[in-house]
Amino acid sequence: VTTYLAQTALVDGAPVRDLLLVADGGRFVDVRTAQPGDGDRGDVVRLGGVTLAGFANAHSHAFHRALRGRTHDRGGSFWTWRDDMYSLAAGLTPDLLYRLARATYAEMVLAGVTCVGEFHYVHHQPDGTPYDAPTTMSQAIAHAARDAGLRLTLLDVCYLAGGLDADGYRPVSSLQQRFSDGDAARWRERFETLAPSTGMLVGAAIHSVRATPPDAMSVVVEAAAGKPLHMHLSEQPAENRACQARFGRTPTELLADHGALGPRSTAVHATHLTAHDVALLGASRTTACVCPTTERDLADGIGPASALHDAGSPLAVGSDQHAVIDLVEEVRALEMHERLSSGERGRLSPVDLLAALTVHGHASLGWQDAGRLAVGMRADLVCLRTDTVRTAGCSPEQILLAATAADVDTVVVEDRVVVRGGRHESLDVATELQSSITDAWSAARAQIAR
Ligand SMILES: [Zn+2]
User: Fold this and answer.
1) pLDDT score of 382
2) Ligand 1 mean position, distance from CA 322 (Å)
3) Which of 25, 205, 239, 252 is the most exposed place for a label (fewest CB within 10 A)?
4) What pLDDT, on the 0 to 100 scale, is given for residue 83?
5) Within 10 A of 199 (CB to CB), how many other CB atoms are there?
6) Cβ atoms within 10 Å of 36's Cβ, excluding its own
7) pLDDT number for residue 78
8) Cα(431)–Cα(297) distance, rounded to whole angstroms?
């Protein structure tokens, strides 16, 4: 049993002084305002600053971290960035993926993330041949999350086509073939070998209307019954044009036609939507996972986050390609991008932003029992310092409008301290990032030269 005493905590968005949190078996068993004398015991863990529930990063491609700070020299577009990403993916071995993902997930924990959703599509060997053990690459992801100290929802992606235009689906290219199972039945066969374990859930994913044809969408929806179902949606206008040209439907409408929307579903990006799309997503209670730092990095555009929120879609956030791993910045950008596009302030309140960062993000990943400071919930805690140059003087309830990942002091995942004093308890994260990124690019160059 561990007793934590938070100087100030945000409980469902409201600041509470001297909050006592007792954890047992990885969950909170008592949460209440401390009484005189509660803090006198020697074994009480005192938490300064502002304490929040654990953050969920609802959309990640861990290996994309190796692209950070390397794609800005030639301008380009989403599509040229994607070519760089395919080159990087070509060289990944199970060991390189493990090391890169472990370092990236450790960077996330330093930023307060206690659970990540990995949208995983590097399933096979570079030439498309399955590994002897079909779960080889997903095991690398699972071990990386375990060793970095956070929970994982492995979202196994059905990726079958190389693109979509008015004439239909193109076959996967040589650089995409390691993502594809060949057909939906073989995807499902491999998907059904994946099993949840301690700290890990399994969900399914439709890559996008570009890479997952409608008949395959139906297979994924069926396989995902009772589990989280994620999908990229309308990140770029070109995707919408191709879908309209081929099917006479928007991507949202096509996904709705095939049963892919609903309270266990999450649409990632949801950037270029019609009013009808927003109504479909909201009425079905589909979560919208917005990835603002990625969307601005890739010049995707600004999606209708507050319209989705008002229509009934819970909002979550993800760092996606990890141009930035700062989930506080990610939720702050939800509101800031709204201000830029609408000319209004306060479209999303600080309470809305906290919910996106914590309870909605966890629910999107299938962890309905995480993301709140309440009895029965998983004992995750994030302490933000209030004595830094960024946070000094700000109101606790508005801390998400001021802090950054650099202000994270302590992170507790299911009653285990993983970050203390802003440092990871078991990994030298910057060194691991440096070495794994260097090795991933060496392997990519060697594979491309082959
Ligand atoms: Zn993505």
Assistant:
1) 98
2) 10
3) 25
4) 85
5) 17
6) 7
7) 84
8) 25
Query: How far does residue 44's CA lie from ligand 1's centre (Å)?
Result: 41
Kindly list the averaged pLDDT for each block of 10 residues, start to end, along the chain of length 450: 96 96 97 90 92 98 95 83 89 97 98 98 95 96 98 98 96 94 98 96 98 98 98 96 98 98 98 98 98 95 97 98 97 97 96 98 98 98 98 97 98 98 98 97 88
Measured between alpha carbons, how far is residue 262 from residues 154, 159, 210, 314 in Å? 19, 21, 21, 11
Q: Are 122 and 336 in contact (CB under 8 A)?
A: no
Cα–Cα distance for residue pair 424/107, rounded to 1 Å: 9
Sign for the CA dihedral angle at 313, 308, 247, 160 comes to negative
Residue with tokens 């003087």: 393
Token couple for 189 = 């066969």
Tokens 């019609």 correspond to 274
Ligand 1 centre to CA of 379 (Å) is 28
Q: How far is the CA of 208 from the centre of ligand 1 (A)?
A: 10
Amino acid at 12: D
Query: Is 23 in contact with 29 (CB distance < 8 Å)?
Result: yes
The first and second tokens of residue 80, run together, are 């040229």
Tokens 């395959």 appear where?
216
In angstroms, the CA 40 to CA 234 distance is 55
Residues 6+ apart with CB under 8 A from 86: 173, 175, 176
| 410 beta partners | 383
DSSP state of 197: B
Reduced to 3 states, what is the DSSP secondary structure of residue 334?
A: helix
- Tell me how far CA of residue 34 lies from CA of 30, 270, 397, 422, in angstroms: 11, 43, 20, 26
Of the residues 300, 320, 326, 407, only one is catalytic, namely 320
Q: What is the pTM of this model?
A: 0.97
Catalytic residue among 207, 232, 269, 322: 269
Q: What confidence score (pLDDT) does residue 204 get?
A: 98
Distance 27 CA to ligand 1 centre (A): 31
269 part of the active site: yes
- The answer to whether residues 317 and 268 touch, using CB atoms and an 8 Å cutoff, is no
Answer for the pair 50, 384: CB distance below 8 angstroms, yes or no: yes
| Pick from 174, 285, 307, 164: nearest CA to 236 | 164
Letter string b/e over residues 119-135, b meaning 16 or more CB atoms within 10 A of that residue's CB: bbbbbbbbebeeeeebb
User: How many CB atoms neighbour CB 277 within 10 A?
Assistant: 24
Would you call 232 a catalytic residue per the annotation?
no
* Cα–Cα distance list, 96 to 66, 83, 93, 431 (Å): 11, 20, 5, 15
